[in-house]
Design a protein that fits this description.
alpha+beta, three-stranded antiparallel β-sheet, 3 strands
Length: 95
């Protein structure tokens, strides 16, 4: 019976989807590209709600697309998304 409970626990754990992201952690940030200089403001979903974690996570994502993270403006939950959507424009949840 113990084995059946263990197997059932493992199966249930494997069936629960894990997106890797918390549903309500976001950061707004500023980034740049050089030659020619281009700047952008964006909003991104992050996996941990802290500026330090957001900086590490977004630096890598942006660098993969040729951007350099300048700074994390703030970290917030989904209640802050609507007021930032227009300002972020095409960089809203892009990275």
């Amino acid at each position: 019976m113990k084995h059946m409970s263990l197997i059932l626990g493992v199966v249930v754990t494997l069936l629960i989807p894990d997106s890797g992201f918390s549903a309500d952690c976001y950061a707004d940030y500023k980034a740049k590209q050089d030659n020619p200089l281009r700047l952008h403001y964006g909003v991104a979903q992050i996996s941990e709600c802290s500026k330090g974690a957001a900086k590490a996570e977004l630096s890598a994502r942006l660098a993969a697309q040729g951007w350099t993270l300048l700074n994390i403006v703030s970290v917030f939950d989904e209640s802050g998304l609507a007021k930032r959507k227009q300002s972020a424009g095409p960089n809203y949840l892009r990275f």
